[in-house]
Description:
Layout: H1 3-6, H2 27-34, H3 39-46, H4 50-57, H5 68-81, H6 86-91, H7 93-96, H8 107-110, H9 112-144, H10 155-161
Amino acid sequence: MTDVELKNPLREESPPVQNELIISTGSLRSLRVSKGLSLHDVEVRLKYPAKLIDALESERFESLPRGLPLKSLVKNYAKLLEIDSRPLEAMLEPYIGSVQGGIANHTSTRTLGAHEIEHTQGGSVLWFVLIVILALVAAGVAVWQGLIPSAWLPAWLGAWTK
């Protein structure tokens, strides 16, 4: 490569833009446009409808989902714009609420172990008894119908069945 090719600004990566402090969600639009992203580009990358992204940028919070979906939208949008999502989350706290994301905090996983222990100890004995009774009934019907040869039966059972 020649020196001209190495100094070509189109071949060099531009330095990263400093994270700007976002004071309102309205400044998200100008930041998005400055990065050369259209609303459709953001929609495709984040997999959120353009109307939600536009509502966030236009500060129409009543049109946004509540709770974890909003928190996810804000985090993903901030990551795409390469900014810190915490100021946005703090600003949208009344709409997000106190959401703890992740499966570890889900109700069904916190109580899963206790439910399994309760049901498996008492349930195992019950199932075992039911299977033994069913096997004895099946064997009795097989002897009664003559499906089992009398040579296979013990002497005390053979005498009882005659």
